[in-house]
Amino acid sequence: MRRTEVKDRLRQLIERRQPGEVLPSERALSSEIGVSRPTLRAAIDELERDGLVVREHGRGTFTAPRKISQDLVPATGGEQFAPPAEGHWTSRVIEFATTPAGARLGKRLEVSPGHTLVAVTRVRVVEEAPMAIERILVPRDIVPDITAAGFESGSFYELLRSRYEVVPATAVQIIEPTVTDADESGLLGVPLHSPALLFERTTRDAGGRVIEYTRSIYRGDRYRITSHLKFDHTSG
Fold first, then answer.
1. H/E element holding 109?
2. pLDDT higher than threshold 90 for residue 122
């Protein structure tokens, strides 16, 4: 039996199981499928690279954990809005400080180099698993009395609205693939140089003032984005 056929049989087996469920042993699978163990092992290696299974030394092979999905939905006028991502999200602040913007960040946030920023790094957790690392920069005069706790409970955007009467209106977000460095791998609990998604977002209020710049690293094995597209009759 060819390796591609073995992979197809294994995919069918995975689809019938829940995320995180243990698979039968290699001996049992090779007997069930009717293939040699080296061929079976090579097929499992490929499925692991595809992110469909996870091997744990001494425990066995498991179906991959459920991916957390974030939808991007077209709204009126072709704009996009992002509903909350799946699951119950919490945050753990690992760094909270105030710092001068400097030339580079001052330009990005459209403030002077000496303008004070609130700089926060937090780990975002969902279903008890670390999912992302966010580095958030906010002009201090927008959130003059904020503490680390303000970034740990509830939605930061909701806090801006309710406490500071600052309403996020528009944002430009860039997404690109990357891999985790040593620090990011440790915080996310993934191997070094694991696939990840890099998000850079600049948010403005209705008057066009920059109110936030965030750089985030999301796990590539657990997080995905779904875009909903709508075509008119003139689309090619």
1. helix 102-109
2. yes
Q: Exposed, middle or buried, 177 (CB in 10 Å: 0-12/13-18/19+)?
A: exposed
pLDDT tens per residue across span 10-25 = 888 888 888 888 899 8
Q: Which of 219, 224, 218, 211 is nearest to 136 (CA)?
A: 211
Query: CA-CA distance, 195 to 185, in Å (whole number)?
Result: 10
User: d(Cα 155, Cα 128) in Å, to the nearest integer?
Assistant: 18
Residue 75 confidence (pLDDT): 46
Is 50 exceeded by the pLDDT of residue 79? no
d(CA 198, CA 175): 6
Helix axes 37-49, 26-33, angle to 10 degrees: 110
Phi then psi for 136, rounded to 5 degrees? Answer: -110, 135
Q: How many CB atoms lie within 10 A of CB 169?
A: 13
Full-model pTM? 0.68
Q: Which residues are 54's β-sheet partners?
A: 62
DSSP class per residue in 166-211: --EEEEEEEEEEEE--HHHHHHHT--TT-EEEEEEEEEEETTS-EE
Q: What is the pLDDT of residues 38-74, one digit of tens each?
A: 888 888 888 887 778 888 888 889 887 766 655 555 4
Q: 20 in the Ramachandran plot: left (φ > 0), alpha (ψ -120 to 50) or beta?
A: left
State the Cα–Cα distance between residues 178 and 138, nearest whole angstrom. Answer: 25
How many alpha carbons fall within 13 Å on the CB side of residue 54?
A: 15
Number of H helices, E strands in the chain: 6, 11
